[in-house]
Amino acid sequence: MIASERTSSHPPGAEANAADTRGPSSELGRPMATAARPLTADHGRRVDLRRRARLRTACVLAAPVALSVALDVGHRASRIAAFDPLHLATYAAAVLESLLVGAALLAAAARRRSVVAWLVGAVFVAALTVSLGAQRYFFQQYSAYLNAEVSSFAAQFRASVVNQVAADLPNYLGALLPALAAGIAMVVAARRWVRLTRSGSRISVALSPGLLVAALFVPTQHRQHQASTPDVLFWNALGGLVRVATGVGAPADRLDPMARQSLPVPPLVVGRAPANNVVLVLLESVRADATCIEHDPGCRKTEYTNRLLPGRVGLSQLRALDSTTAITLAVLWSGLPPTASRERLRTQPLLFDYARAAGYHTAYLTSQSLDFGESRRWVENLGVDRFCDATELDPAADLDVGASDALLVARAERELETLPEPFFAVVHLSNVHYPFLVDPAGPQPFQPASRSKAPADNPAFYNHYLNSVHQQDRHVQRLLAHLIALPAGPRTVVAYTSDHGEAFREHGNMGHTFSVLDEELHVPGWIHAPPGTLTDAERGHLECRRHQPTTHVDLTQTLLDLMGLLDARELGRFLADLPGQSLLRPAASPAPVPLTNCSALWSCPFENWGALQGFRKVEAREWDWRWHCYDLALDPEERHDLGPSACPELVEFASATFRRLPGHAEDGKRSPKPSE
Q: Which of 29, 162, 368, 442 has its CA 20 to 30 A from that of 562?
């Protein structure tokens, strides 16, 4: 198919004829032996030129797959080196697929003076740019590539994905530009150096569209270790979007929040006199180290609430069991672990149900957009007395950051003024969700600050996040100051926490939902209990828990205890198997609890889970071959993996709970690497 280069315009044999007339002859009229040397040298030169032409053609056509593999090695050389024979085989198959698709497109684009070649060239450049450029950007954020699962997940949150890319558009385009330049250079090189026979050109033009379309649907190893090249993973992800859009072959295991219907709760008698009012202030995406949990005279991060409530009881070791808002709401309001069945999550009574059964008046007030991922379905049957969400506060509310927290606080002030006692209310803020709302006219004490998510800008981007937390704290302080000043203030206990944290590349990830590492789970927590709302014993037990490990399921039990409902006999069947313990009571040895962002309530883009007991944690993500064990007391940044042998009980608990490592088949169907 590759055409040889012509080295002369003379017809075959012309050189020999010329030699006959010019060179000396033997007696028989034949050229002398000395005339054979130029002929041999010229033939060798032609062979060498043809060899070089073939080599140039091969190199140019192999350039797309070579660039893809080089990009991949630069991102995750150690992971590729750890592939077992099965995953090396799937990777080799992906390399072959990448070679066939890239070479066919580039060969078709090499034709000169052809409209079809120009069109194919444009398709090739676009395909290379978006596949490698987008994968480079995605890996910078999440230490993993976009794949079919992620594209299916993104299809649920298309508006959110557009918002997030738009918020970081310069960096996204910056990731595309090198791939764009490489694609153009490859087309130029192909037109200059690739020479195909006429039939070869026609075959490449005929095959290239079909190969590219086939790449969208050819199965590849896209989960677990992502043992495929970045471009093949991207094409397969696009195919996933097509499957979701058409409903043909769409993943059957994708889960959306469902409408709830709590089991009936019998009438309850409040075990406190007088009854406490309880308000839960729930933040969005605020990690523990972005706040001042204990009173600190020099605090700047959350300086407003720090000054307002110097006597609060901090919970410095409070952790969520997940880093997904919807799952946190289910855990925190029900007390269930995130691994509960879908039916249990649908029917387990919530804090609102218990409070209402005891004669409490209830409210759920949030600036969150409940249109995100159909979350509205999960809260539509809360049955609270007062309710508002982002779209009620502002019909044009952003899908990600919600309505302004200032609007929420103004609404909450009015509702709490008129809500009859005793009351239980949740005020759920939203503006610290990415892209982290910051009022340009407001104070921004953390500088330099930048909205750029580029790796080099990470410190400045974290400052931007801190400025958003600082702004939100002003709104929380305003709400709490108003609440304390109300006639109900002296009888109102305030609990404060966040749904989850936020990662800033500590373990390669940005954002949340992608791991159960501490930057995503360790959240702020404190309780403000005015005099008379707790007994001396309860306050003493709470004080003892300041620096002890606690979780959101403990906070659930504590909220029930604050309302005087934890000992109600009627609740025994609902609370008997819940893992939490009230912080107002003597501390017992903590039970192991599962950690996961992959719940029966909510799908996850990458599987990740583990278990926590006290300060010991095990966790794993899709590309891991084994459980990682950390001691959070000695290693709060989780830099030193102790290995599964250091956490045998937790490994056993996690293995029994999840039955497999993330991304792996059921235990027994695939063995770990022999070295591990």
A: 368
Same fold yes or no, 277-588 and 606-676:
no
| pTM for this model (two decimals) | 0.83
Percent of the chain residues past pLDDT 90, beyond the cut: 66
- Whether residue 672 is predicted with pLDDT greater than 90 in this model: the reply is no
Report the candidate in 133, 335, 191, 342 with the shortest Cα–Cα distance to residue 256.
Answer: 342
Write the CB contacts of 350 (distance below 8 Å, at least 6 apart in sequence). Answer: 260, 262, 333, 334, 382
What would the two tokens of residue 632 be? 């959070």
Specify the pLDDT at position 122: 93
Q: Which residues pair with 279 in a beta bridge?
A: 425, 494
* Residue with the larger pLDDT of the pair 6 and 39: 39
User: In which band, very low, low, confident or very high, does the pLDDT at 269 lie, cut at 50, 70 and 90?
Assistant: very high
Strand order in the sheet with 608-613: 593-596, 608-613, 616-621, 628-631
- My answer on whether omega of the bond before 435 falls inside 30° of 0, hence cis, is yes
Q: What is the pLDDT of residues 356-368, one digit of tens each?
A: 999 999 999 999 9
Query: Rounded distance, CA 479 to CA 510, Å?
Result: 31
CA 221 vs. chain centroid, Å, equals: 19
Residue 236 identity (one-letter amino acid):
N
Q: Distance of CA 15 to CAs 9, 27, 89, 515, Å?
A: 11, 21, 53, 73
Domain-wise residue ranges, the chain: 46-246, 277-588, 606-676
Strands of the sheet with 525-528, listed across from one edge: 313-314, 525-528, 492-498, 277-283, 423-428, 361-366, 386-388
- For 324-372, the pLDDT digits (tens) are 999 999 999 999 999 999 999 999 999 999 999 999 999 999 999 987 7
* Domain 606-676, classified CATH 3.30.1120, yes or no: yes
The average pLDDT across 423-440 equals 96
CB 110 within 8 A of CB 46: no
Question: Half-sphere exposure of 108 toward its Cβ, with a 13 Å CA cutoff?
Answer: 27
List the one residue out of 79, 73, 69 whose CA is nearest residue 623: 79
**What CATH number labels 277-588?**
3.40.720.10
